[in-house]
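Box 3.1. Reading complex inputs
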Amino acid sequence: MERILSLQDIRFSYTPDDPDSRFAVDGVSFDMQAGEWIAVVGHNGSGKSTLARLIIGLLFPQEGTVGLFGDPLTEDNLWEKRSQMGMVFQNPDNQFVGATVQDDVAFALENNGIPFGEMTLRVQNALEQVKMDTFLDHEPHHLSGGQKQRVAIAGALALRPRLLILDEATSMLDPQGREEVIRVILELREKTGLSVISITHDLEEALLADRVVIMNGGRKFAEGTPQDVFLKGEALTALGLDLPFAMRLSALLKEQGIPTEPGTMTERKLVEQLWTLHSNR
Amino acid sequence: MDIALEQVGYTYAAGTPFQKRALHDVNVRIPSGSYTAIIGHTGSGKSTLLQHLNGLLKPTAGRVRIGDTEVTKETKGKQLKPVRRKVGIVFQFPEHQLFEETVLKDVMFGPLNFGVQEEEAKARALRWINRLGLPEGTAEKSPFDLSGGQMRRVAIAGVLAMEPDVLVLDEPTAGLDPAGRKEIMDLFYELHEQRDMTTILVTHSMEDAARYADHMIVMHDGTDVLQGPPGEVFGDAERLAGWRLGVPRTVSFQRLYEEGAGLPHGPAALTEEQLASYLAAHLGEGGSAS
């Protein structure tokens, strides 16, 4: 397996000259293999969005190194490295430049000097991947939130990135829009082996990831499979984080004298246990 | 203060090529003291409806009754000032509207604008800054030096400092993290109870509608299609799906359980606590439900 990202002891402060200032990211390390999906979770101010900006080279750490696709990220190779990454931001309304969906997706390709024939192919292809290919000539601002974010993802995909970073890309969407976007990402990973870092508050989304990194006060509080990380239960709620729905419901059922298996995190697993209890009653 | 819309229609840019009908034949009543949730898919007309609740928009057809004031297309802007004092609206991302040099001045702006005396406006502002849980010393800071979550609280304090009888909330927690979301929603609920306010919540979160509201209005394609208590609205998931709306996670889990266990649909579980009790009643000793 190829290691595509390696963070080593990164420290970053927005006000490095102020001796009293706190590090927004304070000594964080983790690696990522090609094809992985990592969810980064933490409350506002935990440093997770700063982390995303450090990875994509919008910010540079004062200490430590960001390794991308085998090399440390520097100001010299920034553009070459960045061309292999795509990023989708939180607000679907702040990231459109084109007058139509296809113009918008083509924008970055044009910037990168991709020939016209190749460009049309890539635009079509990227929009098919997010299931928006019937919207080529629509105006972006008339789309729903979920559709807008899918177009934004297509814009990133058209550049054929090796790493896609989603910075709270679903947090402003309605439940339906959120589901559309998550479904598209799941499918993309299955079909293309794309690597994804998703900065998110949505724990049900985090449950789908291969690995979860929990940030708190600029530091990495926990890292592991969703199963391992969410087993910490109360330690996470003490940080002001929530737990997945199935875990919250299991805890309430326990209070009512209905025990479920420890570590039940998905609704499917929980309902299956309840069905069994029902039929054995 | 009751609010009622009678045969309300609203068309943007009427008489131009850009004319667009946003509302038609809306008949809704928001009872005084209720906590009413308005739900509807993107484009259903909920934002246009919301702007009628304090006369920001005047209906192009029908009438809006806000307490004793009646608003029709003929109503003059001047007549609406008392209405705007009584109905406070917290818009989406209200922190984008902060503009003053200090937090204190920003929160005082609303009350001063409605004729409250300087001293009283200041006292109110300080009280609400404190009530919103902002740290000591925030009042003297520039609102632009605060974090996003704090800016949101300052903007909300600015609306509450007008001490409205009706508080309208448009997606007030969008973009906040789960802890921040719960804190703000619990605060609104507390105020609703203590101050005997009418609260109107426009939301995409079926969970919030189910947990906090006692009355609901469902909008679809520019008109009201259903009104009733949350238990009734969320009781029929299929009907909601037809309007491209979902049910709270508690209800979808409940239905999944009932269908797999071969049970008839019980009353919709609106909170996780209700769902746990319902399941326990089925599964506990004796299994009272069958």
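In summary: The interface with chain B takes residues 43-45, 90, 144-145, 168, 171-172, 174-176, 201, 240-242, 245, 248-249, 252-253, 255-258, 267, 270-271, 274-275, 277-279, 281 of chain A (CB under 8 Å).
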